[in-house]
Amino acid sequence: MPEKNLEALFLHHLKDIYFAELQIAQTLPTMVSAAESPELRSAFETHLRETQGQIGRLEQVFDILGAKPASVPGEGILGLIREADAAMRLFAGGEAFEAALIAAAQSIEHYEIARYGTLRAWAEQLGIPEAAEILEESLDEETDTDEILSEIAEGAVNREAV
Ligand code: FE
Ligand code: FE
Predict the structure, then answer these.
(1) What pLDDT shows up at residue 129?
(2) How far is the CA of 40 from the centre of ligand 1 (A)?
């Protein structure tokens, strides 16, 4: 019987976010090329670099646990990425394209914030503070990205209202 304890749950979610980050690293270049405004393009470029660093951090956490980095396909992130693709297609060439792109990206950030927040809390509970600290660094980057995207969205809305 496989273990069903908190450590097993932690490892399962770690594999889920590892899968998600790998998918996001593949999707972000499309979002960089799709972005119309230089602010949004540069926010996505920065976050692509951060995402690559986050993949490395997750590998450090696997290492702390004495486990090999591995993925479990997550329906959540796959659904959000499909929605992002659909939004880009549906609103291509329209005036709300960038709003659609930002909304899709923020849904992905919120998913990551949920995952990293949970994993950090579990790492504390499991008595692995070095893992909690590493996860918190990525959590902070996701939160900052979400705030930057909100600022870009609000800036664009304000410009259009003028
Ligand atoms: Fe990420
Ligand atoms: Fe992110």
Answers:
(1) 98
(2) 17
pLDDT reported for residue 3: 87
Cα–Cα distance between 162 and 157 in angstroms, integer?
9
- Measure Cα distances from 17 to 58, 66, 157 in Å: 8, 18, 32
Whether the predicted pLDDT of 160 surpasses 90: no
In angstroms, what is the span from residue 160 Cα to ligand 1's centroid?
30
Q: How far is the CA of 118 from the centre of ligand 1 (A)?
A: 14
Rounded distance from Cα 109 to ligand 1 centre (Å)? 7
How many CA atoms, within 13 angstroms, populate the side-chain half-sphere of residue 130?
6
C-alpha 59/C-alpha 67 separation (Å) is 9
| Rounded Cα gap, residues 156 and 73, in angstroms | 35
Are 29 and 85 spatial neighbours (Cβ–Cβ below 8 Å)?
Answer: no
Q: In this structure, are residues 8 and 65 in contact, taking their beta carbons and an 8 Å threshold?
A: no
Q: Phi and psi of 90, rounded to 5°?
A: -65, -35
Q: What is the pLDDT of residues 97-155, one digit of tens each?
A: 999 999 999 999 999 999 999 999 999 999 999 999 999 999 999 999 999 999 999 98
Coil, helix or strand for 94? coil
